[in-house]
Automatic annotation (TrEMBL):
Belongs to the ABC transporter superfamily. Keywords: ATP-binding, Nucleotide-binding, Transport. Signal peptide: none annotated. This is ABC transporter ATP-binding protein. Residues 302-338 are annotated as: Disordered. The lineage of its organism: Archaea, Methanobacteriati, Methanobacteriota, Stenosarchaea group, Halobacteria. Residues 5-235 form the ABC transporter domain. One of its GO terms (molecular function) is ATP hydrolysis activity. Pfam families: ABC_tran (PF00005), DrrA1-3_C (PF13732). It comes from the Archaea. Residues 320-338 have a biased composition (Basic and acidic residues).
Length: 338
């Protein structure tokens, strides 16, 4: 079986702007794959290229072995997309929105109606089936986008920030649902600003910045790349900074508190305690702080001309978003993507 997604040197240019820069990425069938990156990193462009909303400038992109342009229909039929923005026909009852979608993908009418019922139940808005999109709450709209993505029973489910702006309960419901879908065999590509979400759900994550792939790793591997801090309280303040082995990347003393930056706090702590005791210090208390995935993410995507919002919640709720720039928006509208 070919990979669910395979891109080779994928390039997308919007005028002078290179939104994707030779991006090569492979997502295996059955994976739960996360795409992380600050605002404007190119995540939505990547997704839009896969689903045919954006035409690539160069490189290759395949979905289950089907070229996204020359074999558009096969590639597109394999994908269920829950986009970031609410692009739903507002004038139809939501059940009809779903049956139309299924019909568009060649599913016969009877089957489409059954599937619509089934997915509406699955996302928990079956009782709203005869209501119009506009009448749904924000959380229900998110659920509907997911239902619409699922109505064609896709092998690849793409979720572009599915939990942006939703309450904690719904976020947990959605996590449970997408985990189940993945366990049933659906490959999932998720973009998110919530690092915790990626850590909890994804087998592997790709971190993107300015259209480039910075790294691909499991959340654990990524965390392993950070440093830990061991904070030790001593019985009395040391006269000088204790001399430690090469494992201590940085040692700072403040009164009776010593902070030592190391690669792996758990395995280094016993050695540090031995060294301190051997040099005559009495230890009162010890605490290890692990680098969070969020800190590693910020380090990997830091760039001099951009301020990356540290709080995932802030950025998801509309932090520094270069796309609001009026001319970029106009250009997007011209391409029919906005
Ligand atoms: N249709 C378009 N026309 C012109 N520029 C665009 C268009 N779509 C996106 N861009 C630009 O391409 C870059 C990548 O945008 P994209 O939306 O893919 O990023 P993103 O990683 O999805 O960001 P966010 O996290 O804010 O959703 C940005 O600089 C954006 O302004």
């Amino acid at each position: 079986m070919p990979p669910a997604i395979e891109t080779v040197d994928l390039v997308k240019e919007y005028g002078d702007l290179r939104a994707l820069q030779e991006l090569s990425l492979t997502v295996e069938e059955g994976e739960f794959f996360g795409l992380l990156g600050p605002n404007g990193a190119g995540k939505t462009t990547f997704i839009n290229t896969l689903v045919g909303l954006v035409r690539k400038t160069g490189g290759e992109a395949r979905v289950f072995g089907h070229d996204v342009e020359t074999e558009y229909q096969q590639a597109r039929d394999a994908i269920g997309l829950a986009p970031q923005e609410f692009n739903v026909d507002r004038f139809f009852p939501i059940k009809e929105v779903l049956t139309h979608k299924a019909g568009y993908h060649g599913i016969p009418e009877d089957e489409a109606a059954d599937r619509a019922d089934e997915v509406l139940k699955r996302v928990g808005i079956y009782d709203k089936r005869d209501e119009r999109f506009d009448w749904l709450s924000g959380g229900m709209k998110r659920r509907l986008l997911l239902a619409r993505a699922l109505v064609t029973d896709p092998d690849l489910l793409i979720l572009d920030e599915p939990t942006a702006g939703v309450d904690v309960q719904l976020r947990h419901d959605l996590w449970e649902l997408v985990t189940e879908l993945n366990e049933e065999g659906t490959t999932i590509l998720l973009t998110t600003h919530y690092i915790e979400e990626a850590e909890r759900l994804c087998d592997r994550v790709a971190i993107m910045n300015e259209g480039r792939k910075v790294t691909v790793a499991t959340p654990d591997e990524l965390k392993g790349r950070g440093t830990d801090t061991i904070a030790v309280r001593l019985a009395s303040a040391p006269a000088t900074t204790p001399a430690l082995g090469a494992y201590a990347h940085e040692t700072t003393v403040s009164g009776d508190r010593l902070e030592v930056r190391v690669d792996d706090g758990g395995s280094t702590a016993p050695r540090l305690l031995n060294d301190l005791e051997a040099s005559g210090h009495e230890i009162v208390d010890l605490e290890i702080t692990r680098t969070s995935l969020e800190e590693i993410f910020v380090d990997l995507t830091r760039s001099e001309d951009r301020t990356v919002t540290r709080s995932s919640a802030e950025s998801a709720d509309g932090g520094d978003d270069g796309r609001d720039d009026a001319s970029a928006k106009r250009k997007r509208e011209q391409e029919g993507v906005a």
